[in-house]
Write a structure and sequence with these properties.
With 91 residues, the protein is an all-alpha fold. Helix content is 46%, strand content 0%. It has two helices and no strands. Helix 1 packs antiparallel against helix 2.
Length: 91
């Protein structure tokens, strides 16, 4: 998104658990939107905490889920990582 890398969900999660967590994440995101439309800062804060919790459980935030020692480039610009396509980098 906008040239930044974002961590994928942990592929080792059982499919039923992954689906449950994604459903929870989507519910929390809808709650954020509802709270924002209502101007309810407390409800928005609670909903955002639920989004964060679901993302941690999915492995998209928090400690890395891989064990090969590769660094976490989450939120780094692609062009500043080893994943950059040298042909696309201006220099």
């Amino acid at each position: 998104m906008r040239g930044r890398l974002w961590r994928a969900s942990n592929p080792a999660l059982p499919e039923t658990e992954r689906k449950r967590l994604v459903d929870s994440l989507m519910d929390a995101r809808r709650a954020v939107a509802t709270a924002r439309r209502a101007g309810d800062a407390d409800a928005e804060r609670e909903a955002r905490a639920r989004v964060h919790g679901a993302k941690i459980a999915l492995g998209e935030r928090g400690p890395v889920w891989w064990a090969d020692g590769a660094p976490d480039y989450t939120r780094h610009l692609v062009e500043n990582t080893p994943y950059a396509d040298p042909a696309m980098i201006r220099g």
